[in-house]
Amino acid sequence: MADCEKLATCAFFKEYQEDESKKLALAGLANMYCRGDKQDVCVRKKVSKALGGPVNVPVNMMPNGQPLAGTSSDGWSDAVKTAMKL
Ligand code: SF4
Fold first, then answer.
1. Domain boundaries, the chain
2. Of the four listed, 10, 62, 77, 85, which is most buried by Cβ atoms within 10 Å?
């Protein structure tokens, strides 16, 4: 399976890729979602599509829709939370 077409520009990875404490988690997520079978069920992709673009997706949202460990979903908008459930 080809890599997700958004991998090179995905804000989630751009934001955290230099953080040594998160590199292992990011690699696991990328293998499972962005380079693997689950890229079609990526919640970031779903929210981006529903809300008109990746700029509207919280940067700390993992591809599984949860906030990255050590971060919170408190600031996520109602529109984001609704789009996640679509
Ligand atoms: S997190 Fe989702 S949108 Fe971003 S590169 Fe991975 S599969 Fe694509």
1. 11-84
2. 10
